[in-house]
Every structure is written in structure tokens, then in C-alpha cells.
Write a structure and sequence with these properties.
single chain, alpha+beta, 11-stranded mixed β-sheet, 13 helices, 21 strands, 33% helix, 23% strand
């Protein structure tokens, strides 16, 4: 149901809110772990523990052309849990999440609460999500304890929603806050998403080796925690106002796609389900969802006309290069509309549910459209979309691009000066790996080229399919180092 259906039930004129939902994100926080690993890390582990095979060569070839330059991880390639003779057990994965996931989550929440400026005693609800842990009590229980939030706070832990989890958590928080508004009560909802995906690498490599499956997910995912405080404006003043106001949202399921995108339970954790149909399915679903959503929000109409996609900046969950470029093309956008999504994807990878808040946080670094479309896809396939209005001066505020260090936190907002020295090729060195400092247009061209290479590899008409994924046939791949073309043939993969 569109939020416009409940507008008449909510109070008006709360502080800095300019719309009658009176809902806004008043604080954001992002915490990435200290390690950034490049594509070489996956190849190192594969060569260290697994024999060469057709499927493994295919995956490693795709890994070189995802467009991701570094991925955030809780450890480097020599982390003990990924260097045992066998993949980590579900107990080991849970133990490390209880330690590292909770730590990242607490730090992200502290940043969001600090920007909000309120007290943990004023938090009324917590909505959390993860798809890389399923212990009971949930990880949110331990986050609450470490933050010192009262035990009577109302908690909700969402599961089974994967990469769309961050937006689903914001949507759930919005409904809770509207309920409080209806009752005339304040709502300060802490939204939290946390994922530790890096330690699943050995389990994924096991499947590639044993079942000869082309499993692309092992090339994409990373670690992160992100948080936001959502307010209904009732009660205490919110200082300078919300970073983003919520204007409306929409959730829908793409029919008959349950087998295309998921995260299957496995004795060694979880296994990514990602078929070659996902980019096409996702891109095709965005336009009708966008049209329905903006139709339901009169305040975004212009002179009685519906706005077009290019009237908004887009905080798109960067699920993969083909998804980003596919949505860009389907919605007739430019790279600048998606700049934050490109930058987060290339520098940190896909951190599943935690990524969307990171993209929204990154968006504040640069000027852009006042109104924003946030969009994410998850298992189902579920599509989450939200219309936001950002505070005009928010572009000068960045909160959370920090990395935990053994002796504290070091601030990093993505600028070359704070990432590290830039070499002659325009690549900043972080932990020995290159992070691109190129423009959004160059990033688009980079990802489009790599996306085309991946698509050719996955959707080749020739070659036997492996677990539903066609084998790689002769494909022209752009050389990421110098822009020249090289040819990858079936013989190269044997």
C-alpha cells in the first residue's frame, strides 16, 4: 500500500519535515572492516586449496572483470578461518559473526546515533536484518546490550530478504513510526543491517570444485554494517532536520523468480543462488514500479505531470555491474545519476543488505538532485523502492566511511587524499590494492565493458550448461589494465 493512503491519519507540521508523512532519516552510520582485498585474493585461495578445473577457471576469469577493484573484508587472504584444510563450519561462522558482526554493527549504530544527536534512551524501536547469520537470540540482542539500550526496546529482526534487507528494514521502520504518529507518540527507530560474507569463500569454492558449478556470487560479496535513525518528528526537535525525508515506498515480488535469486542454507553456511536471468528481470521491473510509486506521491508531480527517472538521483543497490548498467539503460539515466552506486560497488563490493545505507551516505558527498530514488533487489525476486528528499546542505556532511583499526578508527570519505597516495595511473593504493578515482562516466564505461564481458561469458550460446549457467565460449574481454581487447577462448578455460 502506498503511504499516501495513510497520510490523512498522521499529524502535520512536525519541526523540519516538509511533507505530511513526517518521516525522516536523521542520522546515518557506516562501518566497513579494515581490510580491502582485490580480485587477486580469490585467485590466491583457489590456487592454494583447489585443483584447476573448467568451472574454477570460468569463475576466476569472471572474477577479473566484475568491475570491483577491492572488497571490504574482516580479514586478508591469510585469515585463519579461510586457510584451514576444510571450509569453516556453521558454528565457526556464527562465532565470528557474534564477534566481528556485532562489533561492526555497534560502531555503525554509534555513528548514526551521534549524527542524530539524541540519546540511546530515546530509541523506541530497533529493526535489524542480516542474511549471513541465523542464531537465536539474533545478533541485534547483543548490539542492544553493547549500546546500553534499555532491554524493553521493541526489536524486530528480519530474515530471508537478502540484498533488499536494508530497504525492507527502513520500510518496516517507517510503518512502525507511522503507527506511533497515529497514537501521538514519538518514534526514534534504529535501523541496522550487517553482513559478513567474506568467510563463505571456501564453502563457495568447495561447490565450484565438487559440483563444477559456475558460482558468480563468490566474486561479488563483501562485509559491512550500516545503520540509520528514523524519526517521526513527534517530540524533541531534530536539530538541522532529517538527512533524508521519506516521501513514499513500494514493495513487490517479480512473479515466478524464486529460483533465480537466493541464499540457500548449507552445512557450511549459505550458498548464493544467482542465475543469469537476474539482471534482465531486475532491470525490466524497475520502470513499472517507479511509475506506480511516483503516481502515488502528488508532491513529486511537476505541473500535473509525472516526473521522469532522470528528475531524481538514484541510490541503487549495486548488486553487480550488469544490474547497475541495466537499470541505467532501462531508465534512461546517466552515470552521474548513479555515481554513489558505482563508487560503492567498485571500492567495497556488494555488502548485501548493508549496502543501500552506505550508498545513501556516499551520496551526501556531492551535489545532485533534491529528490532521490532508492532501489534494491532481494530473494523472491523482491523489489524495494523508496522516494526520498535530501537536505540540500547534506552533501557537505559525510558520516561513516571509516575503517576499524586495532588502535581506533581512521576516517576515510573516499577522497584520494584520505585513501592514500595516488599513482601515475590515477589509482589510489589501499592495503596494496588499487581503488579507482575516475569520474562517474569513466566508471560507467569501465563497468559496462566488464559487464559485457561477464554477460558474454555467462550467456554464450555454445558450451554445456553447468547448474543452469552456460559454459564460457569464445569471448572478447576488455583488459582492465590498459583498455585493450584480449580474447578468452574455451581452450583457455580447459
Amino acid at each position: 500500500m502506498s503511504p499516501s493512503a495513510v497520510r490523512s491519519s498522521t499529524a502535520n507540521g512536525h519541526g523540519h519535515f516538509e511533507n505530511d508523512l513526517n518521516l525522516g532519516l536523521v542520522g546515518l552510520g557506516v562501518e566497513y572492516p579494515p581490510f580491502l582485498v582485490g580480485p587477486e585474493a580469490l585467485e590466491t585461495l583457489a590456487n592454494r586449496f583447489y585443483p584447476s578445473s573448467t568451472a574454477l577457471k570460468k569463475v576466476l576469469s569472471i572474477n577479473r572483470f566484475t568491475g570491483i577493484e577491492t572488497r571490504a573484508a574482516i580479514g586478508d587472504v591469510d585469515h585463519p578461518l579461510v586457510n584451514h584444510p576444510n571450509a569453516p563450519s556453521i558454528k565457526e561462522l556464527n562465532d565470528i559473526f557474534r564477534q566481528e558482526g556485532v562489533r561492526l554493527s555497534v560502531n555503525a549504530c554509534k555513528k548514526a546515533i551521534k549524527e542524530w544527536g539524541g540519546s540511546v534512551d530515546d530509541i523506541t524501536h530497533i529493526v535489524s536484518t542480516t542474511c549471513t547469520n541465523s542464531a537465536n537470540p539474533g545478533f541485534d540482542h547483543f548490539v542492544v546490550k553493547q549500546l546500553g539500550i534499555r532491554t524493553s526496546v521493541e526489536k524486530i529482526l528480519l530474515h530471508g530478504i537478502g540484498c533488499s534487507g536494508g530497504m525492507a528494514a527502513m520500510r518496516t521502520a517507517a510503518h512502525l513510526a507511522l503507527g506511533s504518529s497515529y497514537r501521538g507518540k514519538p518514534a526514534r527507530v534504529l535501523v541496522l543491517a550487517c553482513e559478513i560474507s567474506s568467510l563463505l569463500v571456501r564453502s563457495e569454492l568447495d561447490s565450484i570444485n565438487q559440483d563444477q558449478q559456475t558460482r558468480v556470487g563468490v566474486c561479488l560479496f563483501s562485509d559491512c554494517a550500516s545503520a540509520a535513525v528514523l524519526s517521526n518528528g513527534v517530540g524533541a526537535d531534530e536539530g538541522s532536520g532529517p538527512v533524508y525525508e521519506l516521501l513514499g515506498w513500494k514493495h513487490q515480488i517479480i512473479d515466478d523468480t524464486e529460483e533465480d535469486l537466493g541464499f540457500d542454507v548449507d552445512p557450511l553456511g549459505w550458498k548464493v543462488v544467482l542465475t543469469p536471468r537476474v539482471p534482465t528481470l531486475a532491470s525490466a521491473a524497475v520502470s513499472p514500479c517507479f511509475q506506480d510509486l511516483v503516481q502515488s506521491i502528488p508532491e513529486v508531480h511537476k505541473n500535473g505531470q509525472l516526473p521522469i527517472a532522470a528528475d531524481f538521483d538514484w541510490a541503487l543497490h549495486p548488486g553487480g555491474s550488469l544490474i547497475i548498467t541495466g537499470v541505467e539503460q532501462a531508465m534512461d539515466l546517466t552515470p552521474e545519476h548513479l555515481r554513489a552506486s558505482y563508487e560503492i560497488y567498485m571500492k567495497y563490493g556488494n555488502s548485501s543488505s548493508a549496502t543501500i545505507i552506505s550508498v545513501l551516505n556516499k551520496m551526501r558527498e556531492s551535489e545532485g538532485q533534491e529528490r532521490v530514488i532508492a532501489c534494491a533487489f532481494g530473494p523472491g525476486i523482491a523489489l524495494e523502492m523508496m522516494v526520498l528528499r535530501r537536505r540540500k546542505e547534506a552533501s557537505s556532511v559525510v558520516n561513516g566511511f571509516e575503517e576499524s583499526e586495532a588502535n581506533g578508527n581512521s576516517d576515510r570519505d573516499g577522497s584520494v587524499a584520505q585513501i592514500g597516495a595516488t599513482n601515475a595511473n590515477g589509482v589510489a593504493q589501499v592495503n596494496g590494492y588499487g581503488v579507482s578515482t575516475e569520474s562517474a562516466t569513466s566508471q560507467h564505461e569501465h563497468l559496462a565493458t566488464n559487464g559485457a564481458a561477464i554477460e558474454t561469458a555467462l550467456l554464450s550460446a555454445d558450451g554445456a550448461a553447468v547448474n543452469g549457467t552456460p559454459a564460457v565460449n569464445e569471448s572478447t574481454l576488455a583488459d582492465g589494465a590498459n583498455g585493450s581487447a584480449s580474447t578468452l577462448s574455451v581452450e583457455d578455460l580447459d
